[in-house]
Amino acid sequence: MVNDSVIRVAGLKKSFRKGREELQVLKGIDMEIGAGEVIGYLGSNGAGKSTTVKIMCGLLEDYAGEVNILGYDLRGNDLEVKKRIGYIPENAIMYEHLTPTEYLEFVGALYGLEKGEVLEKVGQLLTLFEMHGNADERMTNFSKGMKQKIHIISGLLHNPEIIFMDEPLNGLDANAVIIVKEMIAQLACEGKTIFYCSHLMDVVEKVASRVILINEGVIVANGTVQELMTRAETTSLESLFTKLIGATGQSEKAGQIINAFEKRS
Predict the structure, then answer these.
(1) Of the candidates 190, 165, 193, which has an alpha carbon nearest to the alpha carbon of residue 180?
(2) Contacts of 29 (CB under 8 A, 6+ apart)
(3) What's the average model confidence in pLDDT over 160-181?
(4) What is the largest CA-CA distance in the chain?
(5) Is-contact 215 49, C-beta < 8 A?
């Protein structure tokens, strides 16, 4: 039992219809997360990471099991939950014909924030991400990394209690990655809970206070990085991941790919 739990998930299952077949993505997820924890939610592509996050953010319905966020049963209380959480996706739809200031002002209005408060925060955050000079430019021609910075700001603008991050570093430059890592640590110190969904082991190893590893819709490991590595007798999170999900032969596969290119040339 986690003290001061802010997320409780029990027996979470989710299926999708694919033609005549039903594909079960989540097969019974159980987890409990406390205030101030930084959770690294790891898994390979298709393991069910993003599906889990979208359900907890109230973006996917029709699931089996129980999801409780900040004391609210997600069923029937999704609007109350959405007011209190932040969601930073890997790829999100944004109104690119707007400027960052206009877009973030719109997001702030959705959360009921005062215009003056929003503009002050936006100015500070754009400066931190070295985008103050782009504040009044249309986002149509922004790079993926620039758009991702705006997604990050929009997810933090209303000072949420829980922040869900789904591959938040995708497209960011090296300096922005360092800023986000430091930001995660500082938010956790303030009591914010971070649910960090990724397949990048090295980043998670540095920022997470606890790791939850999902494989084919089920949790196969849950503990601190050191606990899990000790238990599995490994020296890195990457080798732990490989061992637990049964993925082997990566070196041989890499060699085969290189050989295939060399044969063509």
Answers:
(1) 165
(2) 9, 11, 12, 13, 48, 52, 65, 214, 217, 218, 219
(3) 90
(4) 63
(5) no
Amino acid at 102: E
For 36-77, the pLDDT digits (tens) are 999 999 988 888 999 999 999 999 989 999 999 999 999 999
Fold of 5-264: Rossmann fold (3.40.50)
C-alpha separations of 166 from 6, 76, 87, 121, 265 in Å: 19, 24, 8, 23, 39
Query: What are the residue ranges spanned by the domains of the chain?
Result: 5-264
User: What gap in Å lies between CA 262 and CA 150, rounded to an integer?
Assistant: 41
Place of tokens 């406390």: 34
Among 82, 85, 55, 57, which residue's Cα sits nearest to residue 187? Answer: 85
Whole-number Å distance between alpha carbons of 187 and 190: 5
Q: What is the pTM of this model?
A: 0.87
Contact indicator for 33, 7 with CB cutoff of 8 Å = yes
The candidate with the shortest Cα–Cα distance to 210, out of 31, 42, 43, 39, is 39
